[in-house]
Amino acid sequence: MYSFTVNGQPVTCEEDKELMHFLRDDLRLTGTKDGCDSGACGACTVIINGRASKSCLFSLSKVDGKDVTTVEGISQRQKDVFAYAFAKTGAVQCGYCIPGFVVSAVGLLEKNPDPSEKDIRKGIRANICRCTGYVKIIEGIQLAAQMLREETPIPEEPAEGRLGDDFKRVDAVEKTLGTGIYVDDIVVPGMLHASAVRSAYPRAKILKINSEKALAHPDCEAVLTAADVPGNNKIGHLEFISDWDVMIPEGEITRYVGDAIVLVVSSNKDSLTEIKELVEIEYEVLEPLTSCEQAMAEDAPKIHEKGNVLSHEHLIRGNVEEKLNNSKYVVTEHYSVPINEHAFMEPECAIGQPEGDGVLLWSAGQSIYDEQRECARMLGLEKEKVHVQAKLVGGGFGGKEDMSVQHHASLAAYLLKKPVKVLLSRDESLMVHPKRHGMEMDFTTGCDEEGNLTAMKAVIYSDTGAYASLGGPVLQRACTHAAGPYKYKDIDIEGFAVYTNNPPAGAFRGFGVCQTAFAIECNLNLLAEKVGISPWEIRYKNAVEPGDVLPNGQVVSKNAALKESLLAVKDAYENADVAGISCFFKNSGIGVGLSDIGRCIVSVEDGKVHVRTSAACIGQGMQTVTTQIAVEALDIDPALIIAEQPDTARTPDSGTTTASRQSLFTGEATRRAAMQLRVDLDMGRTLESLEGQEYFGEYSAITDPLNSEKENPVSHAGYGYASEVVTLDEKGKLEKIYASYDMGQVINPRAAEGQIEGGIVMGLGYALTENFAMEDGFVKAKYATLGLMDASKVPPIDTSFVAAKDIHEGLAYGIKGVGELSTIPTAPAVAGAYHAFDGELRNVLPIVNTPYQKKKR
Ligand code: FES
């Protein structure tokens, strides 16, 4: 028997178990989050006898006789202060890490009430945040410390909520204090637990599955196989390429180590592993294909029936050979970038439960309507029979666009007619969900004697792993952006997305552009060197401005401000001893002729204005975005607005949270719906008199397909532009980042800064430290060895906004997305800084010979 106190109350337990699970499962203190269950992320931080500690590293026997405090147990004053300070400074995004930071900060401030910034960075370095880049969290702790020291009352701050206002996130308080509900925080009476047995090999034939021993386990409720799937055993984020097996059937060949073979369902989550070990699977082990080169070899076995090339793109404009032959300077380099992991803080979790003759699914993905479509098809049901509701999403970055747990939870709940939770362990999460594509790229770029770009040629091989996911569109974006935001016309860009037996690769912040931006931007630095001008100058000389034509043929819109962003960082670049620079662009919206629609219903209910969209908030603050747009359109008190969570029964299909599209697309749809209500209000109607009224807004972008015959095709609905400068100190350590962004009308400057800072820190990791370890198709990566940056390594970041004079040209008041753009220029700017530091070109990521990674390849 173990006895200790939790939040001042005595507790006992007979069994020795992990403290984190005891707090979450037995005491239902779910503010303590399970991020990695291996002591690497800090989301489960509690205070044990006055010391901030990771509760997943403690068993109950280790805390016997001690005092444990969780986020629920800090004082009311501390709760009020942290809720205010974190909301005020914009410290909260997806929120999954935040209670852990609050507890670490409480532990720090109790020892040191007046910490320096350095003390704070040190005090929170055991906590990882993948969203914020730590800047705003540090500011939040500084403000909280000051308020606690000075006994400052919580200020009453009237909020305007118009565009451009630092309006407090609508979900900031619940996320700060750990009361917000993520899927794994929910327990439904009678709920079962399911988990997949996954392939022991990246490529192997399944000869036989024997479930007999597993079924004999007293807790086992079912062992499901592909034969139990009532509808289609293939899922896939893109409807026209559904190539991903719900489970691999007997007699078929696995494609990667994340492949599910059976789904074990247990009445007790603690016995799942034991039951899984009782399932006997006979394999014929086959040699995996782990590179594009192997997979494209003539005699390579086919991973999918149609062959190993998922997609091939070839963008040709002008006459590249002639232009390169006539160029004064030409550089050709090979660039290599690795598979990269999202490392969102919340592992995937879903709960399915019977509802009528269909299912209700609680999910944390990036699009409830895609989940509905895929689950319905798998179950052989009409879409309406699959009802999907979103809970809070603890980060996504593209990694939660594909199904991971939703289909398995729906399947088990539908077949067993009971609620079923499927939760991935962190190791399983690393193994299963699609990654950023590793790419091998040959880039040739030319310019004249003054540094005016003339032409470019690129060949790109993209490792798309075992399944299609979004590998085709990612390759397209890699190609459409490969020439950069520069005014030259002659391009020849060929790309191949190739199936391998590595984990699937799909959407990840930047969507293929982080890879090709690295290549073209490094080539620009080499050309600048040959011409004898600075890397800043070659960019400014070639940067597009309104009315110019991008290399993909699209006319640059009036609200583009790339040159302004370059001017904003010019002094920082030129005054630094050692600096690197990059500027880039990123589309908002799916574009290239595909259907792309934002939808919103604005309804008046109980005297309030409900904004109903299915746009998933994966941390970016979607409900706050639509609230501010509705306030702008309606000119009313933001307290009257309720932005609802996505629910297929309430909110119209607003498309996936992808392609930096939601603020623009669902934002414009929200504006259109709200403006209809505005007309009624302007006619003197009151909200009371409009009770029950609904107003529907929709925005559908018209774009042209790739390789359109048009002289100036519209590839995308809009583009954001940015420039970043990275400076190094005399030891080659990161000194400061200067970022200047054109995101059109800034909705919420503090939230936008947070997005940019978070994107930059993710880019720093991609450039310098991150490593997703693989060996012959087996995933060796662990959360602790991913190389994620902690607060002590992140340099100061100076963010500013620029805008064209025609800022409001365009949709949704001139808003442009920034979610992805913020990660793109960072790696090339870092590589440029080290090139300037020691003259060595870094053409492989993560770069080596830095204080962050010493060893030579
Ligand atoms: Fe920190 Fe999302 S807010 S991980």
Automatic annotation (TrEMBL):
Annotated coiled-coil segments of the chain: none
SMART domains reported for this sequence: Ald_Xan_dh_C
Record EC number: 1.17.1.4
Superkingdom of origin organism: Bacteria
Domain named 2Fe-2S ferredoxin-type: residues: 1-74
Keyword Calcium: no
Keyword Oxidoreductase assigned: yes
Full protein name: Selenium-dependent xanthine dehydrogenase
Organism of provenance: Enterococcus alishanensis
